[in-house]
Amino acid sequence: MGKIMAVDFGKRRCGIAVTDDMKIIASGLETVETQNMFPFCTSYFNENNVEAIVIGLPTDLKGNMSEIEQEILKFIEKFKIAFPAVEVHRFDERFTSKMASYFISQSGKSKKKREEKGLIDKVSATLILQNFLEQQQK
Q: Where are the domains of the chain?
């Protein structure tokens, strides 16, 4: 059994989350500079069995795609070539950054830690992945 990885894709950095081997729990893993995603994935996939990746689908309230979608599509195209054995899924990421900020603020972390953008990205990826897992169980 392999893990599932989630990516909250951004222009500068990507939040990464993964499941446990039984695909029950999503946990924040890392925040990676976007330009380093392929070396990171290569290294991580060499050490871990990852069978699928979930990439956030950035839409607004009206269902229109965010401008980052073009960058995401380019990333997916390259990802499928580099890692053909890993399934690619998309999942609605609306409100994940706002929810991540809220959960972090409620966690009791220091103001400096709460404002750390990388932490928000990692928690956002975790929310995308947990929501994806819950939808799969229905």
A: 3-132
Domain at 3-132: CATH code: 3.30.420.140
58 Cβ neighbours under 8 A, 6+ residues apart: 9, 65, 66, 68, 69, 72, 93, 94
Residue 128, both tokens: 């995308």
| Per-residue pLDDT of the chain in tens (138 residues, 90 and over written 9) | 799 999 999 999 999 999 999 999 999 999 999 999 999 999 999 999 999 999 988 876 677 777 889 999 999 999 999 999 999 999 887 655 555 455 555 555 555 554 556 677 888 899 899 989 988 876
Beta 50-57 vs 87-92: how paired, if at all?
Answer: parallel
> How far apart are the C-alpha atoms of 64 and 48, rounded to whole Å?
35
